[in-house]
Description:
It comes from Coffea arabica (Arabian coffee). This is Aspartic peptidase DDI1-type domain-containing protein. The protein has 297 residues and is of the alpha+beta class. Among the domains are: 38 residues; 124 residues, Acid Proteases (Cathepsin D, subunit A, domain 1, Beta Barrel), CATH 2.40.70.10; 33 residues, no CATH class. The protein is 30% helix and 21% strand. The chain is built from nine helices and eleven strands. The strands form four sheets. A three-stranded mixed beta sheet has the order 1-2-8. Helix 2 packs across helix 3. The longest helix is centred in the first third of the chain and has 21 residues.
Amino acid sequence: MEENEPQMGDTTPIRPPVPFPQRLKASRNDKEFEKFVNIFKQLHINIPFVDAILQIPSYTKFLNEIMTKKRKLVDSETIALTEECSAIIQNKLPPKLKDSGSFTVSCTIGNVEFFKALCDLGASVSLIPLTVTRQLGLKELKRTNISLQLADRSIRHPMGILENVLIKVQKFIIPVDFVVLDMEEDVNIPIILGRPFLATAGTIIDVKRGKFKFQIGENEVEFDLSKMEKYPSFTDHIYSVDICDELALEMSQVNFDDDSLELCLNGVCLQEEQVAEMTEFLQAQVPYKRRNAYEEL
C-alpha cells in the first residue's frame, strides 16, 4: 500500500520589513533632486515654468529648498587627499627646530691645545694649515699628487700628508692623517676633522639633541653643544686704552664737581641751569662795605 505524500503548495516568501525606511526615502529624494537640477539647468525663457511647477509639486519643494539655501545646485564632490596633505591638515608635522651650531671638539696635539676642531661630515680628508704644522714642529711631510676641490669650486694642491698624528680628545688618543694645505690659518677653527677621523672615533651625531659622542670599544665620551665653552674669535690680541679724551675729561669734571663757581673759574662750560643758579647765588649775597679805620693820635 502506497502512502500518499502530502503535496506542498507554492508559498510566497515572507519579506521582512526594511529597517530604517527613511534612508530609502532620502536616497529617492536625492535622485529626484538630481533630476530636478538637470531640468532646471536646461530651463529657457520660452518654457512655461509656472505650468511645470503646478504639474510637478515636488519641484516646488526643491525650488523652495534652493531659495532657503537648504540645497545647493552644485553637486558636492569627495576628493581623496594624498598622505602629505592629510599630514598638514591633521597637524602631524614635527615642529621646526633651530640651528644647533657646528659640531666642534676640544683636542690636543702634542703640547698645543685646540679649543675648536670642526667635525665635518662633508670633508673626505682632515685638513691642517701649514703654519700650524710649523708651530707643532711636524716637518715630515709625505708627498702626494692629490688635488682638493673646495666649497667655492676652486682647486688647491696640498703641500703633503702628515701620517699617524696622535690627537688626544679627553681620555681617547686617536691617530689621524692630516692633509697639509698652504692657507691662511683660521684662529677660530684651525683644523678640520673629516670623515676618516670620525669613522675611527666611532662618532655618533644626534643633530636634534645637539649632542655627539665618540665610541671606541666599550668606552664612550659624549659632548653637548649647549654646554661647551664659548671662546673669543681672537685670542692673540690685547687691547688697552691709555689716552683720556678731552671731552671725557671735561664731562668727568662736570659730573664730579658740585661747586658751580669752581667750575666757572676752571673754564668748564656750564649749562644754562647752572649759570642761572650761580647768578642767583651771587645776587643773594649782601655786598661787603669797607669801613675806614682810624688810629688815635
